[in-house]
Amino acid sequence: MAVRISLSAYILIESTCAIDLQEPTEALLWFMIKLLPNVMLILFLVSLLPLPPQFLLGNVGSLLFASLAPACVVLATGIAWILWGMILGVVNLITTVRRRFGSSG
User: Fold this and answer.
1) What is the SS3 assignment for 25?
2) For the chain: N or C, fewer Cβ within 10 A?
């Protein structure tokens, strides 16, 4: 629990400089370029510590399972990109339909 809270705090503090970015795409790119490598390294190193099972996926420091935590972060980042792409697709579809059939508002 403490590792997740500290990781979330780290990401929140580091992402405050991304507030001035204009688009969410820029913020996602900034996260992937600046933060994701650091977060993956930190998670991998913490996963190597012999922590009890209630901490960080409960792998008890097993080298075999140490890559699960960084993989989960990469998976979550990929899902964020997919969702952002879906949102952009829906917005573009609505914009196209409104232009084609005229806007009523």
Assistant:
1) helix
2) C
Structure tokens at 80: 């964020």
Contacts of residue 64, defined as CB under 8 A and 6 or more positions apart, other chains included, come to none
Q: How far is CA 40 from the centre of its chain?
A: 11
The model's pTM is 0.70
What are the extents of the domains in the chain?
2-101
CA distance linking residue 75 with residue 88, whole number of Å: 20
**Residue pair 51/60 in contact by the 8 Å Cβ criterion:** yes
12 with 39: CB under 8 angstroms? no
- Using alpha carbons, list the distances in angstroms from residue 45 to 23, 24, 42, 74: 32, 30, 5, 16
Q: Going residue by residue through the chain (105 aa), what tens digit of pLDDT does each one get?
A: 455 556 666 666 666 665 565 677 777 788 888 888 988 898 888 888 877 777 666 677 777 778 888 888 889 888 888 998 999 999 999 999 999 887 655
